[in-house]
Here is the input.
Amino acid sequence: MSPAPDDGERALERARALLRPDELRASARTDAGYLDLLRDEGSPRPTAAQHAMNNRLVAAVYERAWRPVWTAVMGANGLSAGGERAKAAADLGLGGEQRVLDVACGPGNFTRYFGERLAGEGIAVGFDISRHMLDQAVRTGRGPHAAYVRGDARRLPFDDGTFDAVCCYAALYLVPEPMTVVDEMVRVLAPGGRIAVMTSYGREHPLLRSALGLAAGTLGVRMYDRATLPDAFAAAGLVDVAQQIRGVTQFVNARRP
Here is the structure.
């Protein structure tokens, strides 16, 4: 007699049920504790920053060391990692039996936090391309309302309008084709759902913007201006677009009507 599935396995199967097309859902591997949709290793054409995100050591110390240092560099003006999670949850209006997608989830710190705010059949799905990050997420971030998927965020494997909330914190300045990722996040957002993004901000002064852009470019990190993300959300038909600038970091959230 097979043992009964635990809460983490049940959450993983709820995440599997959301995958499309059907062939992909059926073929997804789970031997590592997450749904693996890819056969390759690591990020496509990785930059120095992306190499770090695909590093086993960085994945292991991300929350205690790497993330605080990176937050200080990004100039979040005293907003701690816990404060960022709380802000994201508030901007997304989390609770109940929602379906939540955490894009570029890393080691699952936000995904786990989101899942703890859900109930019943609610599920927070952490989505990332890095095996090492997801290995860490499975070790520390599984639960009755949190599960993980390995895939390419430029082609999210979900139907239109699947999720009640979509989050992407500290990743858009790293990923290839970031505006394609933004389009995909908006596509899978359900009517009435909310989206929240935290990314880089390049300042308005031309000289400072150039200096920040040069330093960021060396590492393969993009710097965004004030208008790009709010304009993209508005052009996609989202409403209640709000933006907060903190140092060289910006938080942008919006709602699908």
Q: What stands out?
A: The chain has one domain: 7-199.
